[in-house]
Amino acid sequence: MDQASASRARPRPGLALLLAAATLVGPLIPAAVAVAPPGPGGRTASELADSDAADAKARAAAARRTGSAWLPYWDDVEAAYQDALQHASQLHTVSPFWYEATSAGVKGHDGAGRRRIINGLHRAGIKVVPTVTETLDADAMGDLTHDPQKRGEHVDALLRMVESRTYDGVDLDYEKMAVTGDKAARERVRTGYNALTSDLCARLHARGKECVVTVLARAWGTGEAYDYAHLGKVADRVRIMGYDLHWSGGESGPLSSKGWYEEFLRYATNTIPKHKIEVAFPGYGWDWVKGTVGGAGHVTWKEAEALRKQEGATYRFDAASGTPHFTYRQADEEHEVWYQDAQGVRAQMPLLKKYGVRGTGLWALGFEDPDSWAALRGE
Questions:
Q1: What gap in Å lies between CA 118 and CA 166, rounded to an integer?
Q2: What is the pLDDT of residues 225-238, one digit of tens each?
Q3: 43 burial type by CB count under 10 A (0-12 exposed, 13-18 middle, 19+ buried)
Q4: Among 3, 46, 236, 329, which residue's CB has the most CB atoms within a 10 Å radius?
């Protein structure tokens, strides 16, 4: 999963002219000048040293790229794309949220497969690994993954999508199967998903492509539909969603917490090679009507801060969870907003360091507090 990408060399003006002249009049080197004997590939020792230095520089740059991020298709796509380019030095991968798996195959959302975006990210040294979500619940996914023919057809559809563009792999973000059905259905999903990912990852690797899976955190009773140990063996990277501890359909509260991070990181690092783990941070929040359950509205960090300032609400930071929040009144209802910002990322990043995890993720480009990028670097 190293995401290094060498910059593309541009031909220098006049190079073709010089080569033509050399062909006509012979080598442009005076006879009295000593020339170093060529090394491997016909290169001189000096050229080899320069090449080694360039390779070392590229490897060092690649090591600094420890992050990935999702690019949404429904928001300001151009702003999200420019956000990725601006922070290319931190990003090894961008995953456009472009595709959805159904019982009939894989379909693209509006704007999926934009070559200008794919090519621009590649020029910036960023790999493009599109995300595929699924519409099937636990029962339907259990049936699909345990039927060899249906499973094979599903893998074929995913591979066709990968090969439809210059993609570098695929990210499976199959969540519905993990939050529907009863315990028995989710257990069946777990074993079936193991078979699916084994087949898919093997075929992707045979094509030189990457196999990435995005999973719910295994903590406090969630994420049991995912076999972390198996996914850690077959996938190149396992992205853990470090958000939605409290979500739109539940009670109000922080999207994540230090204690929650502690638990899922302890489990993950005991079952998955640490270099394959990424913890994704949120750049958004939820706006609840206080005292109600469910029905919360989604707000990006930018929207949350604009709302807080508009309403004259006091910024509060919950040190126990490591997340900001505020309240305001509207139409005789009191609202409670919990979200994440750079201060919260700085409060939670030490837990990743404690467990030896360097990989980070961001949901999603264009949503976040701009200072979060420095926080993700540990600054």
A1: 8
A2: 999 999 999 999 99
A3: middle
A4: 3
Q: Is 138 a domain residue? A: yes
Residue with tokens 């360039």: 54
Residue type present at position 266: R
CATH assignment at residue 191: 3.20.20.80
Query: How far is Cα 237 from Cα 235, in angstroms, rounded to an integer?
Result: 5
* Sheet (strand 333-339) strand order: 297-300, 284-289, 333-339, 323-330, 316-318
Structure tokens at 128: 């493009």
Q: Flag whether 6 is in a domain.
A: no
Classify residue 336: in a domain, yes or no. no
Report strand pairing: 297-300 vs 284-289.
Answer: antiparallel
Contacts of 197 (CB under 8 A, 6+ apart): 172, 211, 213, 230, 231, 234, 235
**Edge-first strand listing for the sheet containing 127-128:** 105-108, 99-102, 131-134, 169-173, 210-216, 237-241, 277-282, 359-363, 67-71, 91-96, 127-128
For residues 335 and 329, the answer to whether their CB atoms sit within 8 Å is yes
pLDDT band at 270 (very low <50, low <70, confident <90, very high): very high
Q: What is the pTM of this model?
A: 0.85
Query: How many domains would you assign to the chain?
Result: 1
Of the candidates 90, 91, 87, 107, the residue with the CA atom closest to the CA atom of residue 99 = 107
Taking the C-alpha atoms of residue 342 and residue 345, their distance in angstroms, rounded to an integer, is 5
Which residues, in sequence order, are CB contacts of 163 under 8 Å at separation 6+? 207
What confidence tens digit (pLDDT) does each residue in 119-160 have? Answer: 999 999 999 999 999 999 999 999 999 999 999 999 999 999
Residue 23: both structure tokens together: 């062909």
Residues 80-94 pLDDT 10s: 999 999 999 999 999
Residue 365 near residue 70 (C-beta atoms within 8 A): yes
Q: Give residue for tokens 């005789």.
A: 332
- The rounded distance, in Å, linking the Cα atoms of 345 and 355 is 16
Can you give the residue range of the structural domain that contains 197?
65-283+341-376
